């Protein structure tokens, strides 16, 4: 049964490759975003992951903001994309991943090569420009995935883009729970776990609910990036019910 589900996921990925190669070049951005949302929903459904959107923002408008979230799994990108298609900032080495790297690039992922200051500056300026153009940019400030039940420190650098573009930060908390509402360890993608091992754990779980919790906007006007990053971490921790040290 799990092998059959894995085969269905693989076929869905291949359909995504074909869509990016033969359809994306001929359609406008709004249609591409709609296809990304639908494809993400379908991928999650094949993985038996149901998305539950929870608004704890007080009804704030989220059209023009830098989007951030905690990072649990490779699933996080598709959970967020099922809400709204975003351009994610990711580590440059992901670009070299077979199939997944190419798909990510076609979906508008922005790859960041750490340690190369000229490249970082160029990408940073691009982020500011895209935010000013009201594009949805998202990143995971922890910089890597972490086990559920905790929250790693937030790197502050990319928060500067929101400050310069004069847009707020829109934080999300992402949790994966079982039928009883308890954190499900099958979603954790940490340590030396491979993608195949993660996929197997998710399929064997028999069904997860991904809770995508929208939290109140964080203003950035006149702020310092470290203060914004710390405030964002406190807000996300509150959404997750995590007590910070």
UniProtKB/TrEMBL annotation:
Superkingdom is: Bacteria
Return one GO MF term.
acyltransferase activity
Q: Where, by residue number, does the polypeptide cross the bilayer?
A: 6-28
Check the record and name the Pfam families matching this protein. Answer: Acyltransferase
InterPro entries xref list:
Plipid/glycerol_acylTrfase
Where in this chain does the entry annotate a coiled-coil region?
A: none
User: What residues does the Phospholipid/glycerol acyltransferase domain cover?
Assistant: 65-177
Q: In which pathway does it act?
A: Lipid metabolism
Q: Which UniProt keywords apply?
A: Acyltransferase, Lipid biosynthesis, Lipid metabolism, Membrane, Transferase, Transmembrane, Transmembrane helix
What protein is this chain from? Lysophospholipid acyltransferase family protein
Species whose genome carries this gene: Undibacterium danionis
Show the taxonomic lineage: Bacteria, Pseudomonadati, Pseudomonadota, Betaproteobacteria, Burkholderiales
């Amino acid at each position: 049964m799990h092998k059959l589900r894995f085969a269905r996921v693989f076929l869905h990925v291949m359909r995504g490759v074909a869509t990016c190669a033969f359809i994306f070049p001929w359609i406008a951005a709004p249609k591409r975003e709609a296809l990304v949302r639908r494809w993400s929903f379908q991928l999650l459904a094949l993985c038996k992951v149901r998305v539950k959107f929870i608004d704890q923002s007080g009804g704030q408008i989220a059209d023009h903001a830098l989007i951030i979230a905690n990072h649990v799994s490779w699933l996080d990108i598709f959970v967020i994309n099922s809400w709204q298609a975003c351009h994610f900032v990711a580590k440059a080495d992901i670009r070299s991943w077979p199939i997944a790297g190419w798909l990510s690039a076609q979906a508008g992922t922005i790859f960041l090569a750490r340690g190369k200051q000229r490249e970082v500056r160029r990408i940073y300026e691009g982020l500011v420009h895209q935010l000013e153009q009201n594009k949805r940019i998202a990143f995971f400030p922890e910089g890597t995935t972490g086990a559920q039940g905790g929250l790693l420190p937030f790197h502050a650098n990319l928060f500067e883009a929101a400050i310069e573009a004069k847009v707020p930060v829109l934080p999300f908390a992402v949790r994966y729970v079982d039928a009883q509402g308890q954190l499900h360890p099958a979603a954790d993608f940490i340590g030396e776990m491979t993608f195949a091992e993660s996929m197997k754990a998710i399929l064997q779980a028999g069904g997860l609910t991904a809770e995508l919790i929208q939290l109140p906007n964080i203003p950035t006007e006149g702020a310092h990036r470290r203060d914004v990053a710390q405030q964002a971490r406190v807000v996300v921790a509150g959404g997750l019910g995590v007590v910070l040290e």
